[in-house]
Amino acid sequence: MPKINKTKYAILGILNLKPSSGYDIKKYCDLSFSHYWNENFGSIYPMLKRMEMEGLVNKKTEQNEGKPSRIIYSITEKGKSEFYEWMLTPTEEKSTRRERLLKLAFANPREENNREIIMEMFERQKAVIQQKLDEYLQIENDIAMDDPLTETNGISLRVIALRCLIAESRAQIQWCEESVEAIKNMKSKSKNGRTS
Question: pTM of the full predicted structure?
């Protein structure tokens, strides 16, 4: 099955909110969801050109007095149709290269020194995850205070998306803590097969 370039749908999603320039699209990506999805100018501009050829977007030149002209892109009905079709397709989550788990697979808990290294690995990982969690919680607070898409009940879909990362981070922190406890309670196995 051919690989689908998801940059197209990130751009369509932004244009479905409001007409934007390539610069505006990049800025929106950086401010709104860079903590779980990244796009760069090298992928945005070629994709916009392709999408225009496919009839998914229209462009117009906007003249501003005393400033350079800007090209503004708008989503077409065809673009909206393709965007909503993508929204209903099964999501592809790819996480086949998890270095943390690879390190764990090579660890040997039978050696006491190695157990100390493994526990230190978990403690360091927990600190990294905690730092990310703190960032997510701050972003959640910032969005809640200043998001034009916030609904009348005081929550936005951006906050709901972010809460997935918050829940995952909390679960990973708990996994680190439980793993350290499990390793502390492991018994060493001597060469003759006895536990100590």
Answer: 0.62
